[in-house]
Amino acid sequence: ETGVTQSPTHLIKTRGQQVTLRCSSQSGHNTVSWYQQALGQGPQFIFQYYREEENGRGNFPPRFSGLQFPNYSSELNVNALELDDSALYLCASSSGGVSEQFFGPGTRLTVL
Amino acid sequence: GIQVEQSPPDLILQEGANSTLRCNFSDSVNNLQWFHQNPWGQLINLFYIPSGTKQNGRLSATTVATERYSLLYISSSQTTDSGVYFCAVGRGNEKLTFGTGTRLTIIP
Fold first, then answer.
1. In percent, how much of chain B has pLDDT > 70?
2. Do A26 and A2 touch, CB atoms closer than 8 A?
3. What does the pLDDT look like over A24-71, one tens digit per residue?
């Protein structure tokens, strides 16, 4: 059974640029959730995708957007990067409904 | 939204000691998970425990849903137990709300 994978591991961008982060869900899971973790804080929910549709969104601006593909992998896109977007971005997969979420290793984004 | 508080924020223990980490939440939940975050940022699943008691080796957890708290017990601590422990709760099939974590340091 393959776990949740994310790419890239690290990324450095400059303010105003755009970034795409990728996540492959665990085998058998159809739901992907994205979280942002700033230094010294707990992860904050960005949004969730279930069967290619957005299924809930946290308090993040529209420049944070996402996609889920037919194989249930997912992308997180962030436009017009700001310095405060520097964080660890975590992806979690689950089997839908109320179920345990399993996290990937994360992508560490630095915005200069 | 739901509030999650973890205590203590920091805990320093000698190797071999036992510890209890607490998670209080402000509303009813149907999902509760405990995680250990390693130094590289990976969240490791410890327990999925919306209610009841579970044990896994030196670790055990209890959730009393009616009183809105959960406890994580670590016995005979080892240096590899060091890191940040998070409690996360959910009320539907969407997001998990995380606490601010407990940073555990085990001294040899």
1. 98
2. yes
3. 999 889 999 999 999 999 999 999 999 899 999 999 999 999 999 999
Q: What is the pLDDT of residues B68-106, one digit of tens each?
A: 999 999 999 999 999 999 999 998 767 999 999 999 999
Tokens of A5: 């994978």
Comparing CB atoms, the residue among A56, A97, A105 nearest residue B95 is A56
Give the full edge-to-edge strand order of the sheet including A19-24: A5-7, A19-24, A74-78, A64-68
Q: A99 vs chain B: nearest CA distance in angstroms?
A: 7
The rounded distance, in Å, linking the Cα atoms of B45 and B86 is 10
> Which residues of chain B neighbour A97 with C-beta distances below 8 Å?
93
Is B43 in Cβ contact with A103 (below 8 Å)? yes
